[in-house]
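G.,

No rush on this.
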Amino acid sequence: MNTPQARPLQAWIDGVGLLGPGLSDWPGAAAILRGEAAYRPARTEFPPPQGLPPAERRRATAAVKLALATGAQALAMARRDAADLRTVFAASSGDAANCHALCEALASDDRLISPTRFHNSVHNAASGYWGIATGSMAASAVLCAPHDASFNAGLLEALVQLSTSGEDVLLLACDTEYPEPLRSVRPIADGFGVALLLGRAAGPSSTARIAVDAAAAFTDEPAHTLAQPELEALRRGIPTARSLSLLQRLARGEPGRLVLEQQPGQNLAVDVQPC
């Protein structure tokens, strides 16, 4: 008896947002990734969070600012409204500076925790702020995966949601740096965020089709790297920046199989086909 084969998980990339060290938006980053502009390392600049009421704007953390900024870029590129758009949030460690502040408070004599610090400590804080800023009431998933694998886990979750729901999905992945002493054991170089708006069908803003073979998604093949040493160092220095090899394919319009770094012996294989 023939066993039915699983259909590949696929989506069309309709919008991209990017914010990281020396990378202020997707158009500028795409030119750098194509080799048309020089990469100049610089600290990540976090823009003021748009769409939030004044009180929430003051409380917004670096992770929230990354999610709102990159998400807005992807929506603008795709000319989409966030109100009815499913979201998937992925982060290796949430807001690292807030985690550090909580640890400091717990190590002090009075051990009092700020209510703002506490509500910003939950892993779905960025999702909550997104809902406030955009008015979205659509379904939202929030996840992390072991060590540096959260971008890949978020991508897979978004592809599965798109396949099962038939609705477009916005993936928002970000990481922020830890202060010392946590930085010495979890050295994340700076803040980095990426957003991908995944559509169920090709549209006017689609740049590429991405597909994952559900039966052979993971491989022990080595991950693809970047030829530019400074960009490769960035890719290796921040978990979410593992996405840079995919983003470079999108920027250059290069087709073919791509292996995204996840963890030793279990990298993620994807197929990229420009539109």
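When you get to it, here's the other one too:
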Amino acid sequence: MPLIIKDEYPETLFREDGKRLDGRDLNELRPIKMEVGIVPNADGSAYLEWGNNKIYAAVYGPREVHPHHLSKPDKGILRVFYRMATFSVFDRKRPAPGRREKEISMIVADCIEPLLFLELYPGTSFEVFIEVMDADGGTRCASTTVAALALADAGVPMKSLVSSVAVGKIDGKKVVDLSGIEDKAGDADLPIAITWYNEEISLLQFDGDMNLDEMNEFLDLAKDALKEIHQIQLNTLKSKYIKLQEETLKQKDNKKGEK
């Protein structure tokens, strides 16, 4: 992909061979890598590389609520703190959380809270800290995905995972998983998230120009992509426990050998 400095974008977002600037087809996701259990002092954690996005999520809880007046006597609460590192974008970002970060914190919390059995933890809180180390479009979707993975790693009872992706329109063509360039210079952007226990939409935002027929086509495109992302989440969780099982069996074999 060519280096794009600030707001200087190419005239077209497609190459001569019909592919996107990063070499992807219209319905192709950027490369995705997920890991869990990467923050030792957290109750659960996850790391996500999605294209050029690099995001950590750490979960702490259940624990005492501070300040106390925010606690609820009949259920626990979920608090999400989305932050972008000062070096995560081209122009150095101010260290203090801005309006956009507060908005995305609320969006992620609203997506995930219905999945949790918070009634099992009255008077306590679960806190999710999301740190974006490198941003390149779709960070709200990536953050929702990695936050759900971190909560699952923490062993928090959940009805299912939630997966999120942005679909949109660039140069009049419908595409999946917009990069940073496509997000800023494209015609439309539609972030969407699905909760898998009921396959209902838990996030749907829109920016740009799109008619109703296109909206239905976008939803179909998104669902296929979300299934792929969900499978990566499941495989990431399974791989951790398969590794733990293998290590346990190896330790047992070593003890038998010592006898």
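The domain at 32-230 is CATH 3.30.230.70 (Ribosomal Protein S5; domain 2). Helices lie at 99-112, 139-153, 180-185, 212-258.

Enjoy the weekend,
O.
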